[in-house]
Amino acid sequence: MNKPINSQVSKGWDSTAEVFAKYISPANISTGFSTLFAIDALNATIEDPNKEMTILDIGSGTGGLSLYGTSKYKNARFISTDFSPKMIQILDTFIKELNIQTIESKVMDGQNLEPIKDSSIDYTYSIFALIFFPDIVKGMKEMYRVLKPGGKTAIGSWCLDSFLIKVFQQTMDELLGNNSFKQVALSLSDKQVFEDKLKEVGFVNIEIKRVQHPMEIQETTDLIKMFSVNPVYFDCLEALPDDKKPLLDQTIINVSNRLLEGHKRNQNGKLELPSFAYIGIGQKN
């Protein structure tokens, strides 16, 4: 197995926790960009919002799924986990600020959920987190293990035609040559591969749903501000030879401008970045 890169180690995500908190926080509890996809996952799996249940969020970041969930699922208990201590530290401040009693936060690697008992969880989720795991199947097996029989899981993965995925891929193709760089974020971007891995682990009643929500920005230069501390950005930077590293930021902007050519701003005067994802759903026998 290759050595994990920035987007696969906790220190990498610690560095971007403060940025995440601007988009997933009590101030935008139901409208944060990543949270919108988490809501899709919850709606696709939970049929009765009033039943008593335990929900596990793996790779929760600053807690978008759980923070939203407490407002909708009044009889649910949430376990919100991330291997980044900084992410959990920020989530803890939100829990305290909102005086929430139903979220339990834990620093935990999603590939090893040993403290969580077998067959103890009603629903497991991982929205754009499991896709970065060094061992994706191991992570899925842990999600399966902790689920109760009949329990459901939902995993979020970016699609190939999502705007930011295309920006990073085309940027690296220009700087390194076509197809010489593979983004870790695309590990489950193939619908059939996604389904096959869920089957391999033992999940049944599998569905791979395609959903979309636009990311709004004011200018394409904002992308550099957003991603300059993101481990995905550092994965790209470290893959470049020294003479190409100074070209990364401007190439990202140039590619973004090219992809958005002809796009009109929305009624808020913002640029909308088309963002597509798969929500992979499975059930434990």
TrEMBL record:
<dbReference type="InterPro" id="IPR029063">
    <property type="entry name" value="SAM-dependent_MTases_sf"/>
</dbReference>
<dbReference type="GO" id="GO:0008757">
    <property type="term" value="F:S-adenosylmethionine-dependent methyltransferase activity"/>
</dbReference>
<dbReference type="Pfam" id="PF08241">
    <property type="entry name" value="Methyltransf_11"/>
</dbReference>
<protein>
    <recommendedName>
        <fullName>Methyltransferase type 11 domain-containing protein</fullName>
    </recommendedName>
</protein>
<feature type="domain" description="Methyltransferase type 11">
    <location>
        <begin position="56"/>
        <end position="154"/>
    </location>
</feature>
<dbReference type="GO" id="GO:0008168">
    <property type="term" value="F:methyltransferase activity"/>
</dbReference>
<dbReference type="InterPro" id="IPR013216">
    <property type="entry name" value="Methyltransf_11"/>
</dbReference>
